[in-house]
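Re-run requested by the PI after the first attempt was lost when the workstation crashed. Everything re-entered from the original request form. Ligand of interest: NDP.
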Amino acid sequence: MQNNNTEISDGSVSAEGRRLIEGFMNDIIARNPGELEFHQAVREVAESVVPIVEATPAYREARILDRLVEPERVIMFRVPWVDDRGGVQINRGYRIEMNSAIGPYKGGVRFHPTVTLGVLKFLAFEQVFKNSLTTLALGGGKGGSDFDPKGKSDQEVMRFCQSFMNELYRHIGPDTDVPAGDIGVGAREIGYLFGQYKRISNRFCGVLTGKGMAYGGSLIRPEATGYGAVYFAQEMLATRDDSLEGKMATVSGSGNVAQYTVEKLLEFGAKPVTLSDSAGTVVDPEGIDAEKLAWVMELKNIRRGRISEYADRFRGATYYANQRPWNVGCDLAFPSATQNEIDAADARALVEGGCMCVSEGANMPTSPEAADVFLGAKILYGPGKAANAGGVAVSGLEMTQNYGVMRWPREEVDLRLRQIMKSIHTNCERYGRTGDFVNYVRGANVAGFVKVADAMLQQGIV
Ligand code: NDP
């Protein structure tokens, strides 16, 4: 990569580069007021790519970065539905179609009370780079609603999903925009959303991913994000001639990503010792083994219970209300719940507790100050847009199988997932290595950016 006066040889940014980044960010903040998570996600990418943009006249003249931060389309809509008591409820629905330079919009749908336009814009922005890293032809998008499925009956969730799809169906399609699950959207919700899409469009097609196996889903899709985060950790550890075997791991969350992270850690001989939810953390010093994990899956996916029940069920485990898992000494950490769940104090606690590797299953779980702690300590730090890309990668494989009206065996999908995670790691290393240290944040941002930027250049000003 060419160097100019905005970049210093170790990849850090010069005074001139910093001035450009601050100017760019001031504009972002003025144009997108109050969207704090979006500002955070854009700043992180800008820190990595502004030197490249400045060193590449074609990117600068085509204003690639200014176009990348502006969604191609934002859809916001009313979602009215009727609860079990006959009361009328109103939620807000969104779909952010961020960038289609390299493929149809692709990204999950999140149902959670914390969903706002700014949260979904940050997720859609991250998704553009993540999808680019997967090596597949997938653009970036994200959607969701402030609807909270927790505590709702199946019938209520179904009515909500049907109302949500009554508007969304106009905007999506197998070669236009292909949503998937995310927080609060699992197999049940995808089923209801697909059923309604099919009913009102009269089309059976791969318009959603994460579908059930009986109607076009891919094997390994439910496992893919968690498995992928562990494969990515394995690749990072291999650069230091190390492995997962015998390592103690903290995992946050207890949903889809956390569950399959624990499953794959067990397979590689690591010892996961925590899980959490938004109310607290459970610590099991004896380790969460396969039997305990099966119980957690039943608790969370069928009974829809809370992780605090784990400590009632298994002796030796302790539940800590309102706590996150990061004070528990560990070798590896897998944040798998939500954004900004690791602050600077948590990051220091992790590093001081012996953590050598963080692989992000969640999107942007680490605050900027916490990321600086990890980078400063030179631990292996895999950001979400690289480490959790396995989910969208297998969604891409689900789309391929749907186009071909076929289903690949489990082993084949898993092998492809492993190869994709390996190639993401190689690409991050290529752009993020300085001497014997790999800055995976920079590597992921630059590798993801270059492919999208070049596609945008070739497609003219659109
Ligand atoms: P789930 O809904 O299955 O699980 C989410 C878990 O995170 C739950 O344990 C939930 O606890 C916890 N959580 C959610 N919000 C908060 C919060 N504000 N504070 C603390 N804990 C919280 O979602 P997923 O496992 O699918 O997603 C987890 C993360 O992984 C998200 O960041 C998502 O964007 C990311 N991701 C998911 C992918 C996928 O394929 N599913 C792909 C790539 C990234 P509670 O039940 O109390 O809300």
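Saved to the shared folder this time. The two ends are 27 Å apart (CA to CA).
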